[in-house]
Amino acid sequence: MRYWSLIFALAAAFSVGAFAYAPFSPDWWLPNTVAEPGHVVSKAGREIDALFIIILWLTGGVFVATQAALVWAQFRYADRLDAEGKPARPARYFHGSQRLEVIWTIIPAGILVFLALYQMSTWADVKFRSAAPRTPVLAELTGRQFQWMVKYPGPDGKVGTADDLFTVNDLHLVKDETALIHLKSSDVIHSFFLPQMRIKQDAVPGMTIPVWFDCDRAGRYELACAELCGWGHYKMRGDVVVHETRAEFEAWQAAKLAEQGRSQVGEPEGETSEGDRQ
Ligand SMILES: [Cu+2]
Question: Which residues on adjacent β-strands are paired with residue 209?
Fold first, then answer.
């Protein structure tokens, strides 16, 4: 019966192997330690990745140790028969070990307390409202079934005035400037997700939630909805364009505003006018 333990050992070895291989797989993306284009592009994102790695090492170490202990116990205490076909070692019953139970309760509790304290400053930087930047709002972003409507304040710097700029599924910002967004929903709960910046925040109907993030590499990134919000959930995929300079961003905004002015002269149609009716 001892050989059964080898089959279990195979499963354990496979699991541990998959765990050790995963970070080197080409499909692995969170967190990436190598600087690949399109991967983590914000300071907060890198801090979150560092936390992820610590937790991965902790859980990975426990995982490998428990698998090894499991296989060792199976092998060491396998059922054996003596020459007469009777169990060579009778089973021994005991109530349990209070000392062991205390140890394996205190150690995980200690690890959890450590993680809770260790991650606090990163969480505070990203989520505590007291840490929100005192900058003007970049845009008001409203999730609805099934698109992201973006409303920029326009030249007067205020959202909700005649010179606002509307886009759909298209968020623009400037490199190295902390972007502050007011997140809303006009129907169900959506989730604003910027994978490359490690930002995720629910958009809740009836609430305006400030979200801020930075990005230190210009480029085009993904904006997604991370909440299954209905049949067209998959359509809520947009672009985040990070401009190298503020001048570049302003040029884009001016061009878009001019385009919007032209389209509003005639019959309201297309994406921008749809956003307008909200
Ligand atoms: Cu959604």
Answer: 183
